[in-house]
């Protein structure tokens, strides 16, 4: 199982920092990326959709605190969880700047509370095994060469009977020939394309966006078989393939093989709910009570972290992880030094 490289991680951090500068600070960095006003409109639409979806899941007792959002970006969806659904949890992302922008968007969307924000590596989540009742992600797993290691880590931290919600993740289309590079997908250009142009782009163009230039992975050709393998460990799997024209098929045990074939040929998005085996026992715990030390984890230990005034301290190795702008950095010492050297050098992390 191939994992995300250090180059791709550094690319994520650098690119997201530039987006922050343009969309929050108001700098002109990319001519072909959305500005602050435009991205706020898009985020508002995503938040509305998230509220509708999560309200339905909460009604089924699937959404429970503390939640964890993987690849939270600007924390727009976690803001919905905290404020509109009164469900506390953590927003996790490798980009400090994206997590920091949550304070800005809290004001834009008139929210009162922000989630507990953690800058970390999704390959090594800083949570106790079997501790989280609900994990979710949107448009995240395709930023890895293979979603399997991340799903495996999500499975580890889920509590028995816990749920994982996956949404808006692409799967490979077979009817595709890479003939040319398409227009950048996160800009105004695609909106100007005609219907005929969109059809040609769908079958013959390669995804094009600024992220890729920075080394960020845009893996839109994840085979259905890989998705099946990644999610196979869950007990109950209500996962669907959504192809063009809103044609839907089950990922596992499809009831209509014609629809499944259509999805297989034309590609689309995966969404659904997966449940970890076991009986769920409701617990009144805070996300801060189930944090573990990334340094100790390298040696196979799950050492509890204790929050102090200026940081978070390991009760075993005495490493102290900094909190900067309300964001806690929870990396192993080597990864921390590699990705955020300036912050690492001012922290007291055991090597």
Describe the structure.
The chain has 351 residues and is an alpha/beta fold. It folds into 2 domains: 6-174 and 216-287, Vaccinia Virus protein VP39 (Rossmann fold, 3-Layer(aba) Sandwich), CATH 3.40.50; 291-351, no CATH class. It is 35% helix and 22% strand. The strands form 2 sheets. A 12-stranded mixed beta sheet has the order 9-8-10-5-4-1-2-3-14-13-12-11, with helices on both faces. The protein has a two-stranded parallel ribbon with strand order 6-7. α5 (148-157) links the parallel β4 (132-138) and β5. α1 (6-23) packs parallel to α4, α2 packs across α3 (76-84) and α5 (148-157) packs parallel to α8 (224-231). It is globular and about 60 Å long. The model has no long low-confidence stretch (mean pLDDT 91).
Looking at this protein, list some descriptive labels.
single chain; 351 residues; alpha/beta; Rossmann fold; 2 domains; twelve-stranded mixed beta sheet; 12 helices; 35% helix; 22% strand; globular
